[in-house]
Amino acid sequence: MNKAILSVLGQDRPGIVAAISKILFQQNCNIENVSQTSLQSEFAGIFIVAMPIELPLETLRVCLIDALQRFDMHVQIKPLQPQDSGFSTADIEPFVITTKGPDRKGLVAGIAEVIASHGVNITNLKAVFKGGEEPGDNIMIYEVDVPNHVDQKILDQELRERAKELTLEISIQHRDIFEAINRI
Question: What per-residue confidence (pLDDT) applies to 39?
Fold first, then answer.
């Protein structure tokens, strides 16, 4: 089986995931990973699919466009090229960085810059900005993979300094601790 990455964007409404998954099933594709969210009124979905070798990408793309025509969605598909990140899961530690504070431009850029400067990879980012000065209304959650060679004390110090410059409250926790504390 070949693997492909499929992205679908457009105005959110009920039935989009059902239509996508139905076409993938009909084309003998298996959904291996999916990340789907609604951002304000927009649907954003990324699917990793295993597909039969004999199924051309263009055929799958046309089937999806036809099935999603009533939704007026933008569809892109490309082969998935496995890439060696240079780190195995044994070489990284997963952390969750949470910030809260008044909304303004540059918050994501400021924190992401520090994260990137240490060679840390952001694997998932959720940012919810409601505007205004109420810190609890503006939250960013970064899931990151920190390579073992990174000095975590320096990373922590630089993140806290940047958060202070941006008037953000910050929490930095190992993912296992974050999940244990936030378990429902």
Answer: 87
Evaluate whether residue 84 is within a structural domain: no
Q: Is the pLDDT of residue 137 over 60?
A: yes
- Convert the pLDDT of each residue in 158-180 to its tens digit: 999 999 999 999 999 888 777 77
Coil/strand/helix, residue 132? coil
Q: How many domains does the chain have?
A: 2
Tokens coding 3:
């693997």
Both structure tokens of 83: 């890439």
Q: Which of 46, 79, 112 is the last residue before a domain boundary?
A: 79
The boundaries of the domain holding residue 49 are 2-79
Q: Say if CB 41 and CB 12 are below 8 A apart.
A: yes
Nearest to 141 by CA among 118, 172, 103, 120: 172
